[in-house]
Write a structure and sequence with these properties.
The complex is a heterodimer of chains A (491) and B (487).
Chain A (H helix, E strand, L loop, with lengths): L2 H14 L4 E17 L2 E19 L2 E7 L4 H18 L14 E5 L11 H18 L10 E19 L4 E19 L2 E11 L4 H5 L2 H18 E2 L7 E5 L1 H13 L4 H5 L39 E3 L22 E5 L2 E2 L6 H6 L8 E2 L8 E2 L4 E3 L6 H6 L3 E5 L2 E6 L5 E6 L2 E5 L2 E7 L3 E5 H6 L1 E4 L7 E4 L8 E4 L5 E6 L3
Parallel strand pairs in A: 4-6, 8-20, 9-16
Antiparallel strand pairs in A: 1-2, 1-5, 2-3, 5-6, 6-7, 9-25, 10-11, 10-15, 11-12, 13-14, 16-19, 17-18, 18-21, 19-20, 22-25, 23-24
Helix pairs in contact in A: 1-2, 3-5
Chain B lengths: L7 H16 L4 E17 L2 E20 L6 E9 L3 H13 L34 H18 L4 E17 L4 E16 L5 E8 L5 H18 L4 E2 L3 E7 L1 H12 L4 H5 L20 E3 L22 E5 L2 E2 L6 H13 L13 E5 L10 E5 L4 E3 L6 H6 L5 E4 L2 E8 L4 E6 L3 E5 L2 E7 L2 E5 H6 L1 E4 L4 E5 L2 E7 L2 E9 L5
Parallel strand pairs in B: 7-19, 8-15, 14-23
Antiparallel strand pairs in B: 1-2, 1-4, 2-3, 4-5, 5-6, 8-24, 9-10, 9-14, 10-11, 12-13, 15-18, 16-17, 17-20, 18-19, 20-24, 21-24, 22-23
Helix pairs in contact in B: 1-2, 3-4
The chains are: A alpha+beta (491), B alpha+beta (487).
Chain lengths: 491, 487
């Protein structure tokens, strides 16, 4: 029996058992991994998987399950057991899902060169050539000594077709394609070493590698890593300075300091035993505020220059989708607009808690995971400065282009970002002098209120965002524009 | 052929997997059958959010081709979902044929070709697991009530249970079939916005499971209450008392560096430290797949190598890495190149057909590499109370942490964020609850600075600790705490 028929059957059968809502997701997926160290392949693997995830709402309680044995009997058994288990939950406050428009539609990731059209040998060749390029960037001509001691390259391709159907009458078919390149580079010069983890990826076919010139970009980043090891010096700066952060750093800040606290399930507490809560719970009132239009509440979180957007509809982006995993149409969202809290991430469960509609934020990493509110492509809205303009009025400061260590507390208030490629700014100019591992350790309000000036240039990076239990890594964009952060003290 | 018989259908599938691969031209093969059921209840705000059930049934087949002129070989794997004899016979030959398109795998140096007639019997299956999920909602309620009665005003958490039947057969005739089951859970209790406490339950033994979760609920509730009225912590250098939960996360990150894959990837601060003193004399750490209660315990690994205990750190010295056959041979070869002929590492029975990838678990391809089973720290002589009462210098008692990240994994530079109740200890007693600090350090330095090891080990496995770790409270001197600037 095909996946669509089984998914339809799951929904029909769940309804016949009396469920208030049933949803089924069939995913047929093919993955290829090319994992190399210093040009030698440690693993080349492919895997096809098929499975069906089913979610039911019974007596105001949610049951979720999945099967990879795709028979009618197995699906029937799973619907019965998760319906029974949901009933056993016996919540005092019933869970409801928001009313949403019924849709039947299809969407797909535009692909020019499907992964299946590229042979395994060509894929290996790409990884080997890239490794060679990185290797050359770490050594002088005719020298056998290489400063990039460890080069880990991980090329991943995924293509999948998905069918989501629910008892409201909606169904969405999608044809998805994703490619990513993850690198871990270790550069060492004498006793000093630095490590660079760089994620790049897109919802695209094989053509992404060429069109975005990924090879040259990674090679240029590896050259910068060598410079960082050779030139960076530790300095003590015991005064407030201005710091300009590049796209990679502003991207992780948008993700950690703004994106995560904007997830409605965290605010309500559903992630408290895993990925944590949100400091937004201090000023949000679920009975009185509309999470789709919080501007009225005038909750100021940052300077007027701060606007943060999450937009899943950006073609080819790592977090691209046109319908979420609950059949709700995707759209762009201003999380913060001109410094004011504007909108949260909502799936149908938490839209209902707030008495409103979903804004299409439900994502799941696999057929075996439940859809929960997630980010897609989250970034500071570009401004109207050039990078040079952001720097030109700084007497003494830093430019931080990339980062290594970072973390944030589980309410997303106390963050830390350690710079990797970082330069001294003096008298309005970026100097050759590189600064070793400067740490920005700021609270979220201190960070967002110190932003004064945003560039119009924008670059993206790819990362996998982790959340939930079992863990659900989903691909997201973590890039953005340059930001000028005024008067901050390094840690 | 199979050492542990009793499940004829599974036995036949394993044989078909291996024999089909060999017939199609593979030199060696492993078949691994997984029949697994998992249940999970997640709760927050003192109510159940979702009740989940998963089932998986698949056969992984690994096949290799040796090279005539090289010590390494080619390797490929295939996962057959809902396997039956017909499906296995149809799909395996196609994938064996793909080997000719692959280069030699520099990490594949062969598998265990020994012959094992029997394996240690492990009591790692509790048949009470069969209907455990039906009783779990009631267990959640008791856990929540226990927390609320002891100081919490809201409780979140998770109870997760698994039951597996696992079969392994290699082309050398090694392996068998065994069952295992376990339950683990996290309870996080809150008292207001600024105070929380957490405890965990990790067990294979389902008798008295109610008491274990009620105790965890109580402990979490008490911690949440004790944390009320916390003051802003001050950045500086303190001695640190870690609960088993914290210690398992921090030291687990270092122990993961005993994996040769981490070492060759530049992700281990332990490179070049073999036989060096890296910790105090009192510290001994083993990797042990034979601990009855250990969540990753098993009678043999995925090469059919009988499970055995490996001493990773002995009396403070780095004593061994974890290996499978391939990495042991590779290490031996690398040792010969460096004229370290006395080094003859052998497999430590850590071979695992593991998922390697960045996205959702079921979708990830598998490959064969060493994976740790359970870590076990030796116990010392201190109780928690003694750690506190003997603290003459400013000391922080940290009950939980998360988000450990590295500046450079090859150096071990890291920071981690305390979460849940944290206390300042002065003059031998808990002075006050504190909040909003960050621990910054180096894994090697922290290990060296261990001042005392507790006598109260506990198995830790939760969101932030993936390898089950038996570890007591541990005290470390001279730890640096930083603080974010701004209100």
């Amino acid at each position: 029996m095909d996946g669509k028929t089984l998914a339809d059957h799951a929904v029909d059968y769940g309804e016949s058992l009396g469920a208030e809502y049933v949803e089924a997701r069939f995913v047929n997926s093919k993955n290829e991994n090319y994992f190399a160290r210093n040009g030698d392949f440690l693993s080349i693997q492919e895997k096809s998987s098929r499975g069906l995830g089913i979610r039911v709402l019974v007596d105001g309680c949610v049951g979720f399950g999945s099967v990879d044995v795709l028979t009618k009997d197995e699906v029937k058994n799973r619907v019965e057991s998760i319906s029974k288990m949901a009933k056993l939950s016996k919540r005092e406050t019933p869970i409801e899902f928001s009313e949403e428009k019924t849709v039947q539609d299809t969407w797909k990731v535009p692909v020019n060169i499907p992964f299946k059209d590229i042979s395994k040998e060509e894929k290996q060749d790409y990884v080997k050539r890239l490794d060679e390029g990185i290797k050359r960037s770490g050594s002088k001509r005719f020298s056998i000594r290489n400063k990039i001691k460890n080069r880990i390259l991980f090329l991943h391709t995924n293509s999948k077709d998905k069918y989501i159907v629910n008892s409201d009458g909606s169904n969405i078919r999608s044809d998805e394609s994703f490619i990513s390149l993850f690198t871990i580079l270790n550069a060492k010069v004498k006793d000093s070493s630095e490590q660079r983890m760089l994620g790049l990826g897109a919802c695209s076919g094989w053509e992404w590698l060429k069109e975005e010139n990924i090879h040259d970009f990674v090679v240029s980043e590896s050259k910068k890593l060598v410079s960082t090891v050779e030139k960076s010096r530790s300095v003590n700066i015991n005064e407030d300075i201005d710091v300009v952060v590049g796209p990679e750093v502003s991207g992780i800040m948008a993700h950690e300091n703004v994106g995560h606290p904007s997830e409605s399930d965290r605010i309500i507490g559903r992630e408290e035993a895993q990925a944590g809560g949100s400091f937004y719970d201090e000023f949000l009132d679920i009975d009185d505020q509309d999470p789709l239009d919080l501007k009225q509440s005038e909750i100021k979180l940052g300077s007027d220059d701060v606007s943060v957007i999450d937009d899943p509809t950006i073609n080819r982006s790592p977090g691209f989708y046109l319908y979420d995993e609950e059949c709700v149409k995707a759209r762009s969202r201003y999380l913060i607009k001109n410094g004011q809290l504007n909108e949260l991430f909502l799936n149908r469960e938490f839209a209902s808690v707030f008495g409103t509609h979903s804004n299409g934020a439900a994502r799941s990493s696999s057929y075996s995971r439940e859809p929960i509110p997630r980010m897609s492509n989250t970034f500071f809205e570009p401004g109207d400065h050039t990078k040079e303009e952001l720097v030109e009025d700084i007497d003494k400061g830093l430019l931080i282009e990339s980062f290594t260590e970072w973390n944030i507390d589980d309410r997303r208030y106390h963050s830390k970002y350690v710079g990797l490629e970082a330069y001294l700014i003096k008298n309005g100019r970026v100097k050759d002098q590189m600064i070793k591992r400067p740490a920005l350790e700021l609270t979220t309000p201190a960070l967002l209120n110190s932003i004064e000036g945003v560039s119009k240039d924008y670059e993206y990076r790819m990362n996998f965002c982790g959340k939930s239990d079992p863990m659900q890594p989903v691909s997201v964009s973590t890039g953005g524009p340059y930001l000028r952060i005024r008067d901050v003290r390094l840690g | 052929m199979i050492a542990m018989v009793g499940y004829n259908f599974e036995e036949e599938l394993l044989k078909v997997g291996v024999e089909t691969a060999l017939k199609a031209g593979a030199d060696e093969a492993i078949a691994k059958l997984i029949d697994q059921k998992k249940h999970q209840i997640r709760f927050s705000n003192s109510s159940i959010d979702v009740n989940k059930e998963w089932s998986s049934y698949y056969l992984d087949v690994l096949f290799t081709k040796k090279s005539r002129f090289s010590l390494t070989g080619k390797i490929n794997t295939l996962t057959v979902q809902d396997p039956d004899v017909k499906r296995v016979k149809k799909n395996v030959p196609k994938h064996v044929d793909l080997l000719k398109h692959l280069p030699k795998n520099k990490l594949y140096w062969g598998m265990d070709d020994g012959s094992y007639t029997s394996y240690r019997s492990l009591d790692i299956y509790d048949d009470k697991i069969e209907d455990f999920h039906e009783k779990a909602p009631e267990l959640v309620k008791k856990t929540i009530d226990s927390s609320l009665q002891n100081g919490a005003d809201g409780v979140s958490g998770v109870i997760h249970s698994e039951s597996s039947k696992i079969g392994v057969l290699t082309s050398y005739g090694n392996g068998g079939i065994y069952r295992s089951s376990f339950c683990r859970g996290t309870v996080r209790a809150f008292n207001g916005r600024d105070s929380s406490g957490q405890d965990i339950v990790v067990t294979r033994e389902l008798s008295n499971i109610d008491k274990k979760f009620e105790r965890a609920g109580r402990k979490a509730g008490i911690l949440a209450k004790k944390g009320v009225g916390s003051k802003e912590g001050r950045a500086g250098t303190y001695d640190l008392i870690m609960t088993p939960t914290v210690a398992a996360n921090i030291f687990g990150n270092l122990l993961n560096g005993t994996n040769p894959i981490m070492m060759v990837s530049g992700m281990s601060p332990l490179k070049g430290k073999m036989n060096e003193k890296i910790g105090p004399e009192e510290l001994t750490v083993t990797e042990d797949p034979l601990i009855q209660e250990g969540l990753n315990s098993r009678p043999f690994d995925d090469e059919g190598t009988p499970s055995k205990k490996t001493c990773l750190i002995k009396d403070g010295e780095l004593n061994s890495l974890i290996h499978n056959t391939s990495t042991a041979k590779l290490w031996k070869f690398l040792g010969m190149l460096k004229l370290k002929l006395f080094r003859r590492p052998k497999t430590t029975s850590n071979s695992n057909l593991t998922q390697l990838g960045l996205t959702g678990t079921e979708e990830n391809p598998r490959t064969l590499m060493p994976i740790p089973s359970n870590y076990r720290f030796n116990t010392g002589s201190y109780s928690l109370d003694e750690f506190i009462s003997t603290s003459s210098r400013p000391t922080i008692y940290l009950t939980s942490n998360w988000y450990t990240r590295f500046t450079n994994m090859s150096e071990g530079e890291f920071s981690t964020v305390p979460r849940d109740a944290m206390f300042l200890v002065e003059n031998g007693e808990i002075k006050k609850p504190i909040r909003n600090l960050r621990l910054k350090g180096n894994l090697l330095e922290i290990l060296k600075n261990i001042e005392g090891i507790g006598k109260d080990p506990k198995q830790v496995r939760w969101w932030e600790v993936k390898t089950p770790t038996f570890i007591p409270h541990i005290k470390v001197k001279d730890c640096k705490f930083t603080k974010a600037k701004g209100q």
